[in-house]
Write a structure and sequence with these properties.
The chain contains 4 helices and 9 strands. It is of the alpha+beta class. It has one domain: 2-Layer Sandwich (Dihydrodipicolinate Reductase, domain 2), CATH 3.30.360.10.
């Protein structure tokens, strides 16, 4: 779970107003690619949050995504499903729901707007839309998926202490040894 894991899990945590999962499990493997990467070419991870479950999946070697939408996030509710990606969004109502189906495309320019926001924040010392703490939480969540994949276990996460609960081996993966003279 590398780049897209961080971006897509960030959307989930932002939309659901949560900072971290309570637990995670993952499975997958390198079933096709023959290279020196440590990340799997196929992975599924399940994140348990208070009140909902988030499932992340990625297949490097197959372009057919869930519902044929490509990459993105689907929020499945009792009245409708909301699919979001950089290209826009789609609301798909459940049968017998009062929700109105809708669809919209992004105007584009996401990178330019991000750069404007960052430069404005530097100039006037304001908080950017996505500050470093949000980036840290989203990155940590993707790394938890990798840790669960590497250990092959369900990991329970203490977000406040940023530690794996009752699993010292997995908890060691949450910290790294810095090369001299670097410390944290």
């Amino acid at each position: 779970m590398t780049d897209w894991g961080v971006h897509l899990l960030d959307i989930v945590q932002w939309a659901m107003d949560v900072q971290a999962p309570q637990s995670v499990t993952a499975m997958g493997g390198k079933f096709y690619l023959e290279d020196n990467r440590e990340t799997p070419d196929t992975i599924q991870a399940i994140f348990q949050y208070p009140g909902f479950v988030c499932t992340y999946e990625n297949r490097v070697c197959n372009s057919r995504a869930l519902d044929g939408k490509g990459y993105g996030i689907s929020f499945h509710g009792t009245d409708a499903t909301l699919f979001i990606d950089r290209g826009g969004f789609e609301v798909i109502p459940e049968p017998d729901s009062d929700v109105v189906p809708m669809e919209a495309q992004s105007i584009g320019g996401d990178h330019f707007r991000h750069m404007q926001d960052f430069l404005s924040s530097v100039r006037d010392r304001s908080m950017p839309i996505c500050d470093i703490e949000i980036g840290h939480r989203s990155s940590s969540t993707a790394m938890l998926g990798n840790m669960a994949y590497r250990t092959g276990r369900v990991l329970r996460w203490d977000a406040e202490q940023e530690r794996v609960i009752d699993d010292p081996e997995a908890d060691r993966l949450a910290d790294i040894a810095y090369r001299d003279p670097w410390t944290l």
